[in-house]
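Please describe what follows:
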Amino acid sequence: MKRFLCHFSILLAVLSLCLGCPQVSADGSLTINVNQTISRSLIVNGDLIVQGDAVLDVDFSASGQQYLVVKGNVILRDSSIVNFHGTPGMNEDAFVIANTFSSEYSISLENDSLLSLSDGMFKTQAASGGSVSMECKASDRARMIVKSYMLDTSNSWLLGFFNDEASLRVLDSKSIPTEIYLYDSCDVELAGERTETGVWLSYFESGTYSAVLPDQTGATYSWDISAGWHLKIIDAKIGLAAQCKPGANLTVYGTGAPETGEFKIGYFAGNEDLTGLKTGLQNGIVVPGRLTLNQVQLGPIAWQIYVENNTLATISDSTINEIGIGGDGHVEVDGCVLQLAVLAAMHPASTLTILNSDIWNQLIDAENGAHISIVNSSIHGSLFRAGSPNSAISVTSGAFFDNPPINPAVPMVDIQSGYPNYNPFRTPGSAAKSGQGTVSTAACLNAPF
């Protein structure tokens, strides 16, 4: 039977002040039903489940650099609580979810549970090499509290989804969660001059909506907005964006500054042709009946396009950061600059076709039998992942180039055009492939595989 190994010894040696022994399953998962305290480094070789009214206190505040590593999912149920206390002012004590690829594991906060993190570092991988992303999903009345915590986006990325009446409180913390998604009647408060993160305002129901953006030209700003969900920003530096689904007609009023951007768009496409989606200052109707931007500065990274079921969308002459196909939809891209994030087709019947484009994305991902075809395009160091055996990615008549090294003196994208200088979320060097499916090249210059 697998056991949980501490950094120095066996699991039981690192559990102090225990009121009962944890349950140990054959795969090494740890289920906690009664109060426990951990004060030394611990590796959990499986899921960490805390349930009932149990409190798991991870207290590293009185010791040297310590870590809690979970090689699986983290699940909080019922009225359970997990408190992580690191050494104040150090941010060296780490809570690590050891994903080996993006979204391998997740955090689930359910019912009336609470996850509280203070004075530490959150990591989404145990190794280092490009940025690995994962999800934290809070539902029901679950709560998450983050204070003086940080995440390094060069190797980690945490997507926080807050549903139902879930709540989030963040004080003086950086990039955790890295992106926050507001749904239903959730309540989010972000405060403190050291707090930096990004928030997605969700406009999913049919209807007409408007948002008046705050002045974001200072070091910090405050803002309070509601649309079913509630967001309150208090003297923090927060990136703002909106998700807009078909049926929602959104008008955004901006200030036109700063040049680095005051707003981003996550656009859920219908059966339509999208062209000329550009970066920088926007003033007018972008998509008739769907999206109007009045004096809105999008900055150099602006557009994420998503497609769901029964949809064919075409995108041309645009600068796009991310494309995701979650249902059996199809996307055709022609003559675009594709920036830093992910190009993904996730449904067995979904397809993504890219023609005559310049690709810098950190990950090109085909899962669950999806197919991606890239023709006559330039690719700069991307990772190709055909995750399942029947997934396929083909590259034809293209050219491969290295992703340049990170240069702190040079922005990752040109501020004016949005054209990438390098992708900091991907290791420098040539493209690579992974997964159980097929990644093939034909008639390509400098093909690395």
About this structure: DSSP finds one helix and 45 strands in the chain.
